Amino acid sequence: MIRVGAVIVAVAALAALVGPLLTPYDPSAQALALRLQGPSLAHPLGLDELGRDILARLLAGARISFLVGVVVVGVSSAIGMTLGSIAGYFGGVVDDAISRVIDVLMAFPGILLAIALVAVLGPSLTNVVLALCVIGWVGYARLVRGQALRAREFEYVQAARALGAGPGRVVLRHVLPTAIPAVVVQATLGMAGAIIAEASLSFLGLGVQPPTPSWGTMLDAGRSHLFDAPHLTIVPGVAIALLVLGFNFVGDGLRDRIDPKKD
Amino acid sequence: MALLDVRHLVKHYSRRRGIFGATSIVRAVDDVSFAIEEGETFGLVGESGSGKTTTGRCILRLIEPTSGDVRFRGQDVLALSRGDLRRLRRDMQIVFQDPYSSLNPRMRVATIVEEPLVIHGLGSKVERRGRVRELFELVGLNPDHLSRYPHEFSGGQRQRIGLARALALNPSLVIADEPVSALDVSVQAQVINLLMDLQQRLKLTYLFIAHDLRLVEHICSRVAVMYLGKIVEMGETAKLFASPQHPYTRALLSAIPVPDPDAPRQRIVLDPASFNHDAPLRAVADGHWAAT
Question: CB distance B106–A166 less than 8 Å?
Answer without folding.
Answer: no
